[in-house]
Amino acid sequence: MGLGNFKIGWQRQVQYFGHEQGSKYTCLIYDNRGMGESDKPLARYSTSEMAKDTLALVNHLEWTSARQLHVLGVSLGGMIAQELALLIPERIASLTLVSTAARLVNTLGYWENLSDRINMSPDAQLDDTKARIFSQSWLEAPDEYGEFPTNGDRFAAMDLAKRQDLKGFTRKGIFCQAIAAGWHHKNPEQLSQLADKVGRQRIQVLHGTADRMISPPHGETLARELGGEEKGVTKIIVEGRGHVLHYEERAMYQEFLESMVEKAEKLE
Q1: Cβ partners under 8 Å of residue 151, min gap 6
Q2: Pick from 230, 191, 232: which is nearest to 85 by CA?
Q3: Percentage of the chain surpassing pLDDT 70?
Q4: Is the dihedral of CA 27, 31, 33, 39 positive or negative?
Q5: Residue 91: which residues within 8 A CB-CB, separation 6 or more?
Q6: What is the pTM for the complete model shown?
Q7: pLDDT tens-place string over residues 1-17
């Protein structure tokens, strides 16, 4: 999951893959260190150390077979997924990297933006977050479940509920996770090594053209440095959609995931 978010953000995907398709799939979701029900040590976090958290968890579950893990990471989670794939490439069946980057460009702006957001009023923070991670068309559309006037209103209610969890959502946790995201850096050589060991046909990169949190060129660069479509990497650019594709295009997102899983299961 991305920076400052709880595992509950995957609830619709878990409903589909873990329940409706429970005979085919087993899902693992968890809070990254610094958020939700996970520990929140005061330290310099890194995506490599956070990947070791994930590795300890899957090892505890004894998910240790070759090509057993279909790994999905969004934003900060996508950075952690890159590190995990470098740690255990032989255990990765497929790797889906969504709205993420090999490294953030213009990190000075990133830190200024982070500082500004943390010091905003709660209402201003919410408005800024909505504008950065969702397309305006999705925010203004009617809530698909009919419980709120718009999708934007549903997200606002979810975000406010998260912020009221004073143990799960802390300023310390946000800063520590932001350090990990800001300092994440994978160079072209490292990405090539990752792709060589995992297999380029097992990798897909997804990004929305309206992503104002991690801009679309980051996704283009990531896909290219992994080897590009000409070498087998799947690149999907979703027109007019923002940072959180699994909210904005839930059915399409699930189709992309299922297609990659099915493709990977047929590979040797």
Answers
A1: 134, 138, 139, 140, 141, 142, 143, 144, 247
A2: 191
A3: 94
A4: negative
A5: 63, 64, 65, 66, 67, 68, 69
A6: 0.94
A7: 889 999 999 999 999 99
pLDDT tens profile 241-268: 999 999 999 999 999 999 999 999 999 7
Token output for 220: 């283009």
Q: Among 35, 25, 31, 37, which residue's Cα sits nearest to residue 10?
A: 31
The span from the CA of 247 to the CA of 219, in Å, is 18
Three-state SS for the chain is CCCCCCHHHHHHHHHHHHHHCCCCCCCCCCCCCCCCCCCCCCCCCCHHHHHHHHHHHHHHCCCCCCCCEEEEEECHHHHHHHHHHHHCHHHEEEEEEECCCCECCCHHHHHHHHHHHHCCCHHHHHHHHHHHHCCHHHHHCECCCCCCCEHHHHHHHHHHHHHCCCCCCCHHHHHHHHHHHHHCECCHHHHHHHHHHHCHHHEEEEEECCCCCCCHHHHHHHHHHCCCHHHCCEEEEECCCCCCHHHHCHHHHHHHHHHHHHHHHHCC
Taking a C-beta distance cutoff of 8 angstroms, is the pair 203, 94 a contact? yes
- 234-238 sheet: strands from edge to edge: 69-74, 92-98, 203-208, 234-238
Task: Say how many C-beta atoms besides its own lie within 10 A of residue 119's C-beta.
Answer: 9
